[in-house]
């Protein structure tokens, strides 16, 4: 059986373990604390030298003998100063010296019991070392000194009187027992001190760990703002090492231009806890941080230091700045957006009222920009818009703000405007900047813009960003109506027209769903035999409050708002269904229906699909559908228009150029427009064909041109028999106008188709 496994042995071992756990560990004092205690005990030892010398003389000892008695004590005191001996060696020297003082006192006092109390005092004092070696040395010294001296000279140790024959070692053991009891009491205090220090060290380690490993910058500052300590996070944030920080004041981390201001404000007020301002790093770069400073109070409740926390918020600040930039700038062009424009106008109007100066807004809208987007794609349109914005920005003054209002609309805020002349000159500069061609995908593109100007004088009662923008927008639409590529200054009539336009646009958005739109048809008549060969589908709007609205009023609104695309698709489907019904009745077998296409429709990528769907849905033969496109719509973007016309022609439909003769560059592009099927002579030439020789010459030229190209010529706006007769003589075979029939409902056209000859209308 293993002796170690015996129950008694196990109990003994457990008791020993508990005793070891209870006993002090020793050598737990920090060096600085140990040095202070050692110095105190050394001072106590040196203090005994003169005191014992005087006591020896008072006891009748000669001076020489007294000095000889003090030699061991002085030697121990001297050895106690020798740092090379380490803590244990110096403590041992002081221990022997102090207990030798006790032995000498007992000897000089004749071994009286009162003198022995000095041992207890010295042993208690030596417990201050809290080390086992000097403490055990003290116990051994007391026992050995009492035993040996009791054997050699009992009177120098005990004063028991005559006849006491007890062994001196017994008395040594008795004294050792008392010393041991004192030692146990000291050990309790010693162990308690060790526990307190261990707890404090653990607490200090936790504090330093929390301080050094904290994810935010932390520092301890003195009352003058100088760093006493700094953690790793602060060193990382600032770029300084901890040692470099300890040589700086806290405001050395502030932005250079504000350091004197921050230094003057130190120390911080009691109610200032968290501030946000710039942090300048060692390399000169700037970040942003939240600075928090807390006071630390000393024993007298006065502030003796500060704890500072620095939370780096650079990423958050940059995100906020980016969000603020995005909230006030257009992502495509980088220009200020509508929000920033409105804020700038508010400030400009306030400054203008204060200094008695006017403020102008110039609204800029690119002409036919939708055609660019639809024909070349939105990516090309975006590039063009960026280029346009950059050109316009370069010709504006430093105080003028160019903003993107939305889509292809830009706006300029101009301050210190006394009359419309300055605003018009700025608009002219912008128009001039756009005259040079823009290069897109290797091709030159020409861009024009319409400018609307509104001015708020210092005495205008209706001064607000909203009214200025509204009025400039109205002036811009007026410029569009007057032919585009021009500038218009707002007046009160434009406001009335703008309100009317807004009401019409709002009503037009619901007109299709509420079945307020209808189609009427005007016949096209053969001048040879008087038969109806085609009918033109014309859109009409019956407004519930305004009554019939002229196409001249609502078609431009539909075009500009984009409503013309769904409305045009509806009209195309309706006309095809009606034409299919006419083709199915006697007299209408060969009638062609002509439907107008707007520039917006022509630029739409799905136009061919829309036409194909209308033909399929109605059952109309493609050759019975003629699509009319104005010459100006084609010339706005000839390349895109020609491509679109060829896609339509591939469907088998007929194509007509409406209002021929009033566009520009028509002859130079006509051969590229082939194969068109019809040239419709504009009514402005037909009006004077009888009275004016130049109009007759133009009509003759167009008819002959059409004949030579193998296409039909159709005269529009024929209102008299003289005009019809002359056109017949000029060999124009088809005409259209009030002379033959006004635009009318489909049922009325069906009745006309029953009449094979309309010769009476030709007379």
Automatic annotation (TrEMBL):
Annotated signal peptide: none
Say which domain of life the source belongs to.
Bacteria
Q: In the UniProt record, does the keyword RNA-binding occur?
A: no
Q: Any idea where the EAL domain is? A: 501-757
Is Ion transport among this UniProt entry's keywords?
A: no
The PAS domain covers 203-247
Keywords attached to this Swiss-Prot or TrEMBL record, sorted alphabetically, are: Membrane, Transmembrane, Transmembrane helix
Domain annotation GGDEF: ranges: 357-492
* Stored CDD domains: EAL, GGDEF, PAS
Membrane-crossing segments per the record: 39-58, 92-112, 132-149, 169-190
InterPro entries assigned to the protein according to its UniProt record, in alphabetical order: Biofilm_reg_signaling, EAL_dom, EAL_sf, GGDEF_dom, Nucleotide_cyclase, PAC, PAS, PAS-assoc_C
Q: Which residues form the PAC domain?
A: 273-325
Pfam family name, one: EAL
The record's listing under NCBIfam families reads: GGDEF, sensory_box
Question: Matching PANTHER family, A to Z?
Answer: BIOFILM ARCHITECTURE MAINTENANCE PROTEIN MBAA, DIGUANYLATE CYCLASE DGCP
Q: What is this protein called?
A: Diguanylate cyclase (GGDEF)-like protein/PAS domain S-box-containing protein
Species of origin reads Conexibacter arvalis
């Amino acid at each position: 059986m293993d002796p170690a496994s015996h129950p008694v042995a196990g109990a003994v071992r457990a008791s020993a373990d508990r005793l070891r756990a209870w006993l002090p560990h020793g050598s737990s004092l920090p060096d600085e604390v140990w040095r202070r205690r050692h110095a105190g005990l050394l001072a106590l030892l040196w203090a005994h030298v003169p005191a014992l010398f005087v006591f020896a003389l008072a006891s009748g000892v000669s001076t020489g003998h007294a000095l000889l008695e003090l030699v061991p004590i002085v030697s121990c005191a001297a050895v106690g100063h020798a740092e090379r001996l380490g803590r244990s060696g110096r403590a041992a020297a002081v221990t022997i010296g102090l207990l030798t003082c006790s032995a000498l006192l007992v000897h000089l006092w004749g071994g009286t019991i009162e003198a022995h109390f000095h041992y207890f005092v010295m042993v208690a004092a030596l417990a201050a070392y809290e080390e086992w070696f000097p403490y055990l040395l003290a116990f051994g010294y007391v026992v050995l000194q009492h035993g040996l001296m009791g054997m050699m000279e009992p009177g120098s140790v005990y004063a028991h009187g005559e006849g006491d024959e007890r062994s001196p070692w017994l008395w040594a053991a008795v004294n050792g027992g008392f010393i041991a009891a004192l030692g146990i009491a000291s050990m309790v205090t010693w162990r308690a001190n060790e526990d307190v220090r261990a707890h404090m060290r653990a607490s200090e380690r936790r504090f330093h760990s929390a301080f050094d490993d904290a994810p935010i910058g932390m520092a301890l500052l003195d009352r003058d703002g100088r760093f006493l300590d700094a953690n790793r996070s602060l060193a990382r944030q600032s770029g300084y090492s901890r040692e470099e920080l300890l040589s700086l004041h806290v405001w050395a981390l502030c932005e250079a231009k504000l350091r004197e201001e921050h230094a003057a404000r130190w120390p911080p007020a009691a109610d200032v806890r968290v501030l946000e301002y710039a942090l300048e790093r060692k390399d000169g770069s700037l970040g942003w941080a939240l600075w928090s400073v807390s006071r630390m109070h000393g024993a007298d409740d006065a502030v003796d230091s500060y704890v500072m926390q620095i939370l780096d918020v650079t990423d958050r600040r940059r995100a906020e700045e980016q969000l603020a930039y995005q909230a006030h700038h257009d992502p495509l062009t980088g220009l200020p957006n509508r929000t920033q424009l409105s804020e700038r106008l508010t400030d400009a109007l306030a400054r203008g009222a204060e200094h008695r100066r006017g403020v102008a807004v110039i609204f800029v809208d690119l002409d036919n920009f939708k055609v660019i987007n639809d024909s070349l794609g939105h990516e090309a349109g975006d590039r063009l818009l960026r280029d346009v914005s950059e050109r316009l920005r370069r010709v504006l003054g430093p105080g003028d703000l160019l903003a993107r209002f939305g889509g292809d609309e830009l706006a300029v805020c101009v301050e210190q405007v006394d009359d419309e002349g300055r605003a018009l000159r700025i608009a002219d500069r912008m128009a001039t900047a756009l005259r040079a061609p823009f290069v897109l995908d290797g091709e030159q593109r020409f861009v024009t813009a319409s400018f609307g100007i509104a001015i708020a004088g210092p005495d205008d009662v209706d001064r607000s960003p909203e009214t200025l923008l509204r009025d400039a927008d109205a002036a811009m639409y007026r410029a569009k109506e007057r032919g585009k590529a021009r500038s218009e200054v707002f007046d009160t009539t434009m406001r009335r027209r703008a309100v009317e336009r807004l009401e019409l646009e709002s009503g037009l958005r619901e007109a299709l769903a509420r079945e307020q739109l209808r189609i009427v048809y005007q016949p096209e008549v053969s001048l040879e035999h008087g038969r109806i060969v085609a009918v033109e589908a014309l859109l009409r709007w019956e407004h519930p409050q305004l009554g019939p609205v002229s196409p001249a009023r609502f078609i431009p609104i539909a075009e500009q708002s984009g409503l013309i695309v769904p409305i045009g698709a509806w009209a195309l489907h309706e006309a095809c269904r009606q034409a299919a019904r006419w083709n199915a009745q006697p007299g209408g077998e060969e009638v062609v229906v002509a439907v107008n296409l707007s520039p917006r429709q022509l630029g739409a990528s799905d136009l061919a699909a829309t036409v194909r769907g209308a033909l399929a849905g109605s059952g109309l033969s493609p050759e019975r559908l003629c699509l009319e496109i104005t010459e100006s719509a084609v010339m706005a973007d000839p390349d895109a228009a020609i491509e679109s016309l060829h896609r339509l022609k591939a469907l088998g439909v007929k194509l007509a150029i409406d209002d021929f003769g009033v566009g520009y560059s028509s002859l130079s592009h006509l051969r590229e427009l082939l194969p068109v099927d019809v040239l419709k002579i504009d009514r402005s030439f037909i009006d004077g064909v009888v009275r004016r020789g130049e109009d007759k010459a133009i009509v003759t030229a167009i008819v002959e041109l059409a004949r030579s190209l193998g296409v039909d010529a159709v005269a529009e706006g024929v209102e008299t028999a003289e005009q019809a007769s002359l056109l017949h003589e000029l060999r124009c075979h088809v005409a259209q106008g009030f002379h033959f029939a006004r635009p009318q409902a489909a049922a009325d056209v069906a009745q006309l188709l029953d009449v094979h000859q309309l010769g009476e209308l030709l007379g």
